[in-house]
Description:
Oligomer: single chain
Helix content: over 70%
Largest sheet: none
Amino acid sequence: xxxxxxxxxxxxxxxxxxxxxxxxxxxxxxxxxxxxxxxxxxxxxxxxxxxxxxxxxxxxxxxxxxxxxxxxxxxxxxxxxxxxxxxxxxxxxxxxxxxxxxxxxxxxxxxxxxxxxxxxxxxxxxxxxxxxxxxxxxxxxxxxxxxxxxxxxxxxxxxxxxxxxxxxxxxxxxxxxxxxxxxxxxxxxxxxxxxxxxxxxxxxxxxxxxxxxxxxxxxxxxxxxxxxxxxxxxxxxxxxxxxxxxxxxxxxxxxxxxxxxxxxxxxxxxxxxxxxxxxxxxxxxxxxxxxxxxxxxxxxxxxxxxxxxxxxxxxxxxxxxxxxxxxxxxxxxxxxxxxxxxxxxxxxxxxxxxxxxxxxxxxxxxxxxxxxxxxxxxxxxxxxxxxxxxxxxxxxxxxxxxxxxxxxxxxxxxxxxxxxxxxxxxxxxxxx
Length: 432
């Protein structure tokens, strides 16, 4: 059977690669000279990277941090295609074509079916394809590939360090931009100030995890300074939920190490003095009921009405923006989405898609907790649990993980954490 499948797989992979090249060439014809030159240089740099690092799934995963300097959906698609092609190539070389496990297969199958049904038969917004990719396709691709890839603790930390470095660069850039544009909500090098916080907060707590793994006092000091700069980058987006998310993460840390509670009160007293004036004004406005808080509550209320109408199968991918526009006549209450990841998934794919989407997340959070609950001190594993948990708390007021700008790394972190917990940080070959 393999004698037939192996050449067939090579033919399929080669055909896909050829189609991708033709597609890129077609797109290149419509690019400006500057953008085309940048693309050629970028592709050249990627090829040089693979010549040095070797062509493997791990080297592709190690390349992922550069996508988050300034996320572009087209590049995310190209990256996922590259990940699939390299994974298929590895399977062919290892003579294990079609011989791999798909973890959470039933729930992912439910998620895919619910997503495709909502995309083709439901109401579609302008961003329907993008959200279909990130909510339904990306989790399946990322989980399948990472869970069938050999992952050691050193490789895991290498990927985390790459993303933390990008978050640090974005934080420094965000501080500089905020200082030169006081009062403006600019998300560093990203297009929106709100969304970048989903990336910041993951790296804030995985950065603490990395710091705990360091034995050198100098390296720990580096991480302390870097963490402070990432936190300041978050603060200068002037986003209120940032403080709630960080406070929740610190609370989880203090639960594991109660002595931290004695430091939290002085920290809460100091924070107002380092907050920029625009952030303080937004906090004061929130207390008296500012516009963004009212819009969120209206979006939540209308989301519940939409869920009630199509509870089982949902209204369609990115349907909220279309249905809300036809319902809400007041422009000042404009909302593009549900402002809540849980409500969003229920609105789009109903309870069926909700089960498919959140079952792997809840399962892995539970596995993390069971692993760390007996450990008395804050550990690397515990901080991974905190990072994922805080991101889910962020989901109460926004939809970070549904968007390609944050979703890809969230699902990568989830799959990497699951792989690490399952194999205790040892390569897969050593645990089989």
